[in-house]
Amino acid sequence: MSFWSLLSHRLRAYWRVPFRGRRRGNGTRLAAGRIGELFGGVVQGHVLPTSVALVGLAGLVSGYAQWRRAMAVDRSRHRSASGGSGEWLDRLARRGPAWREAVLEVRLLWRNSQTRMSAFTAALLPIMVTAFAFIPFELADLRSMSGAQLLNATFFPGLFATGAFAIYHGQNLFSYEGTSVESTMACPVSARTRVLGKLLFLEAGTLTCFLIPLPFLLARQSPFLIVHTSFFLYNAGVLVPAIIAGASFNRKALPIDERSFSQTNFSGGRTAITVPLFGVPFLFLFSLDRLLFQFGGVAGLGLLFLLAMPTWLRGLARLYEYNRYAMMRGFRASRD
Amino acid sequence: MRLTTHSLAKRYDNFDLSIPDLEIESGTAFGLVGNNGAGKTTFLRLVLDLIRADDGEVRLGGDPVANTFDWKTRTGSYLGPSFLIDFLTPDEYWHFVGQTYDLSEATVNERLAQFDDFYVDEPIGATTKYIRDLSTGNKNKAGLVAALLPKPDLLIFDEPFASLDPRSQIQLKELLQERRGEATMLISSHDLGHVTDVSDRIAILEDGEIVRDEPTDPDTLEDLTTYFAEAIRPNEEEPVEAA
Q1: ipTM of the predicted structure?
Q2: pTM (predicted TM-score)
Q3: How many Cα neighbours within 13 Å face the side chain of A27?
């Protein structure tokens, strides 16, 4: 039985059991149980839960629209002391040079169609993992999974859930600034500051992807918490710096103010650096036979790399310096 | 800030730039004129370390631009819209640039007030827009203000008068005249009149080489006009000779 068949089977079994008969507690667990009811009902095609879910979805979309309006420039407002929109972002930018660079990335992300789309695509996977919190899995299920089942249960829900933002958005770092790259290059911003700003930004995105499903996984005491946490540490420690290293090999400026599902920005250097790292966690998962060592190995490697971040930062700054002329040449050529 | 080049060369498939030895003393306003494709922008990019020289080097204040960073804190530049961050409003952009030069918010606001008469159309009025939504002229003004904001020791401009309305061109000339003597200026322009007005020295760049480099005097504008007119005169005379 594949992982997805197993998932479907468990959900059907879960829905058949009356709610009152299930294990439940007070407060958060009760709320989590209700959400589980809702999710299960939607999967089964019941009218009431589906309607509730649709209303919730409409609320999310409406919330997003309001948020976007808040991020956009208020065209009727006089110039403020700090100028433009987002006073809280201005305050954050004043915390230091790296924060200023990270805030610039946030504004780039939210004010351009293409980057906004990559952010929302990235948000889908953590939301999917949130749904996993309501699947009645036990630790024993994780232990007894075959190789293919383990791959299914960890590749997207693990590697991509917390790594989605870094992978989708991070791979095109620098390319998204391709049309204005000379602006930042001519300013007195050191390579270290630029790279640290991007690191801060991607780490914040990765942390957000980790935090979205966390309360639900905790409330439901889901074994996916193990997968989620270990891959978060791996992604934050290993994948994010590698993605930035790979992005320094980007040579094509990407238009950011238009929406496209496929933007071709292939880079051999980027692929060579990042793709092998997608496979590293699975060396632990397939070569070891106890959960502690399997997921502990993945988490430990991430933690080790996080502790060594000052060293990676120096290396990333040097790599950026090494690639900057070629990057600018490529961006100018693709822009022209 | 003193600008020097030593055996500077940049080679492309069908174009070579070669500026063996050039010295621009501190506080000099140096104008650079030439036809399209002469290598003006390439030279400015080399000075700003935006492209790598194939041979030789540029030094600013004695430091080679390729291996040092401090010169950036003393340099303001605008070479065109690629120097703008177009998803910011002009205000946000100016504050961003100010922060990179370690200017406090109060200082940025104080200095921006000096440009209230120059940048009259968009953000200081009732509305504000992203830079990408501005007209070409206002985009250029936003970039020029950002370059002047930190009061740098070296100012580098490529076609600063392009797309500006006549009023703004005159204002820009006044702004540059105010900085004359305090800052070294390197200004490339097709507008012979304006560049002559703001420069102490003018060089003509042709096919990647400086073919003339002289201090400005009352006859400079006429000399330059004659120089460029001579280049097209043979073409004008051809039909007459054929007849």
Answers
A1: 0.86
A2: 0.81
A3: 4
